[in-house]
Amino acid sequence: MDNPISLELKAQCKKIPHSDVDGIVQSKIGLDTDAAHDAYTHFWKSNLREHFHSAIDGFQAVLHQCLHSRAHSAAALSNLAHAILCGFSEDIENDIDRAIYLFHSALTLRPQGHIDHPLSIVDLCHALCKRYSHKKDYADLREAAELYRSILLLCVEGSRLHQLVFDTNGIPYVIEQCNALPNDPSDETISLRRIVLELCPQRHQHRACALSKLAGDLYARFERDGNKDHFYEAVHLSREALAICRAHDDQLKVLSGVLSDTLEHRFNHHGDPSDLYERIVLDIHQEALDLYSSASGQCTITVPKQTQQPSLPPPALAPAPPAPPQTLRSPKRNVVIFGDCGSGKSSVINAIAQKELAKTSPDTLGCTLTFVSMRGM
Question: The pTM is what?
């Protein structure tokens, strides 16, 4: 069973019934809660619908008895919501909206500072993620992310709360689903990306992806609105994402390409040589990784199988005709030439290539104002 029934309600049945009215009511709440809990347990063991419906009816009756008790109402609401959510998971109950409403009501009765406030948030987030997996409503994913962020500081590593929050169906699920959302430069999506980044501490396995997603949305926002602050932040986030990627990470090539294109864009608009230099370094680094990956894939060694008895030598064959000589081709190289406008870069390129590759200008004003790629062979 995922979550135990509220200890606060179960404790009532342990008390000796009093003769006064209040004691009798408390004892009945405890007995009814235990009966509903037993039916809930039987359902988990047998998966019989009658046990499920008995648990729902029992928890609903307890909730009606707790209408005038704030503490008991929160526990009764959570118990009933858990049972409904369980039925939804087993395709018996389809009213997950009601379960989420009940969890919301319980959270309202347990505000920040209440001892059960964090656990109520975990319950609500679990239900929101369950509904998102079926209905794909963006609002559920965003609410779950915001709620998890609100209790992040309370999740001490090794505690029960930390285990619940960082369970595979908790924060990791929210992070993966948010990172899978398409790029969108809207305020809502950028805000959600920032929340997800807070949920990914340093050395988190999904932090590089979260940084890349936020950088992509900010860059798209810059292209739409022209705000340079978004552009500079996108470059900064891309650098951080690239720095924490490992050499074998699939995201490394994508991040390197995005940052390279971004730096080229900024160089073309502002002419800062440091952007061009960083882009060159990125391209050379990526080519080195590609070369290493290609060499690693081709250099395979097959270990011969050992046998107990030596095998006979193969029969002699006629010598094979000599192979035709192979023409060695030198690997391609990238040459970067940059300088002030009108300094003669295009003329140097044409002289090296022995043909008219670059457009030249007879005056000192120059005609090459942006980064240009040319192929000489």
Answer: 0.66
